[in-house]
Amino acid sequence: MKDLAYHWPDGKKCAVILSFDFDGETPFLWRSRNQNVKTMGEFEQRRFGPRQGVHRILDLLAKWDSKASFFIPGRIAEQYPQAVEEIVKYGHEIGLHGYLHERVDELNEEEIEETLIQAKESLQKITGQRQMGYRSPSWEMTESAFNIIMRHQVLYDSSLMGYDHPYWIGGLPEIPVQWLLDDAIFYRYTGGSSASPPPINPKVVIDSWKQEFEGMKRFGGLFMVTMHPWISGRASRILALEELIKHLKKDTEVWWATCEEVAAYHRTAYPDQFRETIHHMR
Ligand SMILES: [Zn+2]
């Protein structure tokens, strides 16, 4: 019978990655780039992330001796260099996440390449690191975006969810995300005329994530949570995140890793298996 299971190092049952998309105000700036916006509400709400949220997260990760992966738009690195320096100082991974959090499906090829180069330069100035992983803003990808990130030798992509363990797509390791493990779907609330339902109780969110973790252990998947400092840096959510970390740390059957480490493992452990091509719905 074909072995469909994904095997992790040292016989571990699943891998755990804590990932953070350090967006701050950039999605708001991108969305309103052609408008004459006078409102300050969402802008200030988002700046809570770089001002306070990210520091609470860094303290929590240090307390539990955990390394995470941070995906950072170039503009955030330019605007808040000290916050990014601190992330580097703590030894976390830094990855690409657009320049102004542009959706790649709203850009032409030239613009995708320009924003990638600009973003890379901004991060490299702080980290000194030449090669990085990539996570697309809003988790949307196109064939052009894939071709461009490959040309610029990114280490992996982390934007899609075609499996719940690493796989290959278009010649790059894909470190899959998933909506169920994203904080925004539970917590994101910005008020105004487009208000979403009220945020979910953090206890309920952590409980859902623990259930998914149990499932991932049974099926050998990747348990990667994606959080945003402007969303998950809020007080009660930090307490809940600490409870999740405690729960995960008790478990000796999991491999704690960063996206970069998982991508490197996938390259050596699965050079030929789980290969997919970029497929279009036409
Ligand atoms: Zn983002």
Automatic annotation (TrEMBL):
UniProt name for this protein: Polysaccharide deacetylase
Organism: Fodinisporobacter ferrooxydans
Coiled coil: none
SUPFAM superfamilies, per database record: Glycoside hydrolase/deacetylase
Lineage: Bacteria, Bacillati, Bacillota, Bacilli, Bacillales
NodB homology domain: residues covered: 38-259
One Pfam family linked to the record: Polysacc_deac_1
Alphabetical list of InterPro entries matching this protein: Glyco_hydro/deAcase_b/a-brl, NODB_dom, PgdA-like
Highest taxon of source: Bacteria
